[in-house]
Design goal:
Layout (H helix, E strand, L loop, with lengths): L3 E6 L4 H13 L10 E7 L2 E13 L2 E11 L8 H15 L4 E7 L3 H9 L3 E2 L11 E7 L23
Parallel strand pairs: 4-5
Antiparallel strand pairs: 1-2, 2-3, 3-4, 5-7, 6-7
């Protein structure tokens, strides 16, 4: 049986940083190690997936930027991307964010499906306007818990989404 745990990643911890580097290498260098909050999913002692969340304020509103999602090829198709999106949205809500934004490569239909399935709509929000080959997604995060209604975890996976 696979052991799975979602946790925050401390980039000052050499062991965790080594796992991030290994995952980055497996994902063709996609993961950039910014000074932001990272979440990771470990499966059988390996970092199977990671994602970052950053914040910015604009026009009196607080935004969460969901980025740098990466699932190791050996662990794709297990719902880890969905779990990381939902976990970061919960963190964004708890941090008082009004909106969550994400960008995807235009060719990444899996990411588009995950974002759309979690309430995001595709729209241009970047100040410079549309960027060729990049799709932009926005989700308004409301008060209360109604906005989470569509996020009930599939049976047997709730333990992966820690609070």
């Amino acid at each position: 049986m696979t052991s799975i745990a979602t946790h925050r990643i401390d980039l000052t911890d050499a062991r965790q940083l080594q796992k991030m580097t290994a995952l980055r290498d497996a994902c063709l260098g996609f993961v950039d190690l910014y000074d932001e909050q990272y979440l990771g999913i470990e499966a059988d002692g390996r970092l199977a997936a990671c994602a970052a969340i950053g914040y910015f304020d604009s026009h009196g509103r607080k935004f969460a930027l969901l980025h740098t999602e990466c699932v190791h090829p050996d662990f794709r198709g297990r719902g880890f991307h969905v779990d990381l999106v939902r976990q970061r949205l919960t963190i964004a809500h708890d941090a008082g964010c009004n909106f969550a934004v994400a960008t995807t490569k235009g060719s990444n239909s899996t990411a588009a499906r995950v974002l759309r399935g979690n309430g995001f709509t595709e729209q241009s929000w970047l100040p410079a306007g549309r960027v060729e080959g990049v799709n932009e997604w926005v989700l308004e995060i409301g008060s209360g818990t109604a906005w989470r209604a569509c996020w009930s975890s599939p049976k047997g996976r709730a333990d992966r989404i820690g609070r």
